[in-house]
Amino acid sequence: MTYAVPPTRTAAVVRQLRNEIISGELPPGTLVKDAELAARLGVSITPVREAIAQLSVEGLIDIAPNRTRHVTKVTQKNALELIDVMSVLACAGFEWGVENLTSTHIDLMRQRQKEFVEGLRAGNTLAAGAAGADFSTIVILASGNRELQSMVDLVVARTLRILAMGAESELWTTWIRGHDAILELLDCGDRRGAVERYRQIYVEYRAQVESHLFDVG
What we know:
Keywords: DNA-binding, Transcription, Transcription regulation. This is DNA-binding GntR family transcriptional regulator. GO terms for molecular function: DNA binding; DNA-binding transcription factor activity. The chain is mainly alpha-helical and about 220 residues long. The protein is about 70% helix and about 5% strand. The protein contains nine helices and three strands. It has helices at about 10-25, 35-40, 45-55, 75-100, 105-120, 125-140, 145-165, 170-185, 190-215; strands at about 30, 60-65, 70. It has a three-stranded antiparallel β-sheet. Helix 5 runs antiparallel to helix 6. The longest helix has 23 residues, at about 75-100. It is globular.
């Protein structure tokens, strides 16, 4: 999978910090300090502050009234709420876009699915998560509704973070099996069936998060 080089220092800092939060390198509750981050990343304070503001919008960093910043903590309640929101947005985009898919789109989805599986086998959850997200993005963008994709983008990082928390669980398997089934249905021309199978992924995913992911702690 190829990744675009961020066009600005702020974008580079956003990507770096987002990846560190999703992977758990910056654990929930970690105090975020501008100067320390700027020194570690070799940039000035300005792009760090701009990046923190962006990640706050994405829900990955909490900014308290006294202006202290912490990596957002994940609870079962907000995880389930996030899944419900993501389900509404992504399933709508998938339904709107599926009828516009061409053979080229489906080939790209198959490639992203391959990268998804390979990333997991290599233990690279960041690459796997990005490829898995792209699988859905291809369909959502086929709908032609870029406003919807922008809304999905705001919550996708938090969704990937939940998946990373369950790296050793069956959460990933739910998506792999679901994607494989969707590709088979699309190959057979059953686009309505593909939409229903996509919805089912979220039903199974939510149930697993509710039942297992927060058992410890």
